[in-house]
Amino acid sequence: MAETLSASGVVTVERLLHGDAYLVRPANLVGVAVVAGIEVWIRPKVAIDRLLFLLGYALSGKRWQDTHVPLAEEPDLLPAVAEAFVRQADRALREGVLHGYREVEASLPVLRGRIRESDQLRRRYGFPVPLEVRFDEFTVDIAENQLLLTATRRLQRLPRLSREVRHGLLRVAGRLDGVTPAAAGRPLPTWLPTRLNARYHAAVRLSEMVLRATSMELSPGVLQVDGFLVNMPQLFEDFVTVALGEEIERRGGRTQRQAPTWLDEADSVRMKPDLVWTSAAGAPRGVIDAKYKAEKPAGFPQADLYQLLAYCTALDLPVGHLVYAKGSGETERRHVIRGKGVEIVQHVLDLAQAPDSLLRQIKQIAATVGDVQDFKTFRSHLGNDRKPGPGASEA
To answer: pLDDT tens across 85-111, in order?
Structure first.
């Protein structure tokens, strides 16, 4: 059992020195997983409604809200997500199942749409029928409904859902009759938010969240993990880059996530900063890296600072910004790098705060990034032109 749990990657398992006792720790994941018949529940440290806010914002750039879901009464992530999904899906389907046009290729005895000439010649060898045609069909089998149905079926497989939630999932699946679920192992269907599918937006985004969080599995025949798991470091990075990117762009310029950056002149060392802010002309103006926890590998302390210094060097920027989650062991401070004219600013984001307060923290960080035009301006902005003040350090 211990070896199976350890191989899953969901938790880390360490055997204690005495007896057959083991120490089990979460591996940066929260949620529930079924590993070879063993249920593993990992509860998040932040409140469930805060976690759902982060998930919704990181996925879409806009938070979805369901004020009718009693999230405070749900002790675990999975029941809260499942109940929120049922309510959002019910709202989306309240006015009926959405229809749309889908391109179809088929062999028909009569002409419909356009003939696929190359396929007709290659497959029919000059015979007039059947016809290889391509046409647009008005149907319920579109990407939005496929995502809803696939997420519904994924949630139905998970343990410990209430009777009301299971009945709600059955009701949603029944209304999506005629829809084809997304194929396992293939990319999710793509969709485009428009005015016509506006009532579906929240439900479809939540469906994508469910499907991404339930798609963890290892090689076929080795080990499969079924459940709902959220990677907290990835979630934190996604939320920070999406929220900060939106706020910075309101102040002018553009932002790019995971922007390819080269450290050396030969372009042989590639890096990907979490967020790069550029002017309209494309010149770098700021760089931000999000860290859920401080990286302190053995023999290489303060790895986060080295990484951000490399970003600033490659982008020729005087200031770089690190954003940590509160509780990571890091505090808000500044590091003035000796002989480099570079300053690294650490920010701390308190995820336990209410959404409005959390977004105010994002605005404060964006203001610090946006107000910095050059190193001299930044040092003056801090009231510290000559030397670091209290709380600053030199590396």
So the answer is: 898 899 999 999 999 988 777 787 777
